[in-house]
Amino acid sequence: MHPTDTALVLFSGGQDSTTCLAWALQRFARVETIGFDYGQRHAIELSVRPTVLEQVRALSPVWNERLGEDHMIDLSLISKISDTALTSNVEIAMQENGLPNTFVPGRNLLFMTVAATVAYRRGLTVLVGGMCETDFSGYPDCRDDTMKALQVALNLGMATRQRIETPLMWIDKKQTWELAFEAGGQPLVDLIRFETHTCYLGERGERHEWGYGCGKCPACELRARGYAQFAASRGA
């Protein structure tokens, strides 16, 4: 990392983006966050964001000093032009094209484009996202090739030298929990378990060992399995 790099973290309020935030706070002297309201079915993630940010600050005086402004962007147009299980109340299922109907076409492409625009205005040089193609639902806009191509396109289109970093790209959910532990110890792991939100259905009624959620949707299953493997490896 270049000593003058500054970062904008795509921060939803979920496990992956919170882990990425901690990763960025370890590395950059100035870190800002950006979130998107796109009419998501699990909009509860937006309500937990302020608490998670506040508690991340409380974990470390250094992180508190480094963590700057949070930006919330209205991208409700996504829900108006898409018809998916994340933007409407339909059953989660596989589609004929081999992708789950939780895939929101263009979502990450638009997220990164808007983030790059905000970063341009704020003088931030690195965009940090929680995309992953090791332990994911098969979304094509989470692939490494997609992010690399997008980085080229954004820099060409804005005459910038911004860099897209995806710390979770080649690790599974167990390793994501491990990365959080390495960054902030058990306090960060517990913050992620009980304050962040990942469940696609927006359920926060039941608290499991791995956190809140329905326990049945693909996001909950990945999170639960990864935490069980992480806890077992630590003898918990």
Specify the helix fraction band. Answer: 40-55%
Largest sheet: 5 strands, parallel
Give the count of helical stretches. 8
Q: Looking at this structure, what is the CATH superfamily?
A: HUPs
CATH-defined fold name? Rossmann fold
Low-confidence stretches: none
CATH architecture: 3-Layer(aba) Sandwich
The gyration radius over C-alpha positions equals 17 Å
First-residue to last-residue Cα separation: 34 Å
Encode the helix/strand succession as letters.
EHEHHEHHEHEHEEH
Task: Trace the largest sheet across and list its strands.
Answer: 3-2-1-4-5
Q: Tell me the strand percentage band.
A: 5-15%
The beta-strand count equals 7
Structural class from helices and strands?
A: alpha/beta
Structural domains: how many: 1
Envelope shape: globular
**Average residue pLDDT:** 89
Q: State the CATH class.
A: Alpha Beta
Question: Any key phrases for this structure?
Answer:
236 residues; Rossmann fold; 8 helices; 7-cyano-7-deazaguanine synthase; QueC; zinc; nucleotide-binding; ligase
Structural summary, described in words:
- The protein is built from eight helices and seven strands; from the N terminus they run βαβααβααβαβαββα.
- The protein is an alpha/beta fold.
- It has one domain (7-194): Rossmann fold.
- Strands 3-2-1-4-5 form a five-stranded parallel sheet, with helices on both faces.
- The longest helix has 23 residues, at 173-195.
- The relative contact order is 0.16.
- The mean pLDDT is 89.
- GO terms for molecular function: ligase activity.
- Zn(2+) binds at residues 199, 214, 217, 220.
- It catalyses: 7-carboxy-7-carbaguanine + NH4(+) + 2 ATP = 7-cyano-7-carbaguanine + 2 AMP + 2 diphosphate + 2 H(+).
- Belongs to the QueC family.
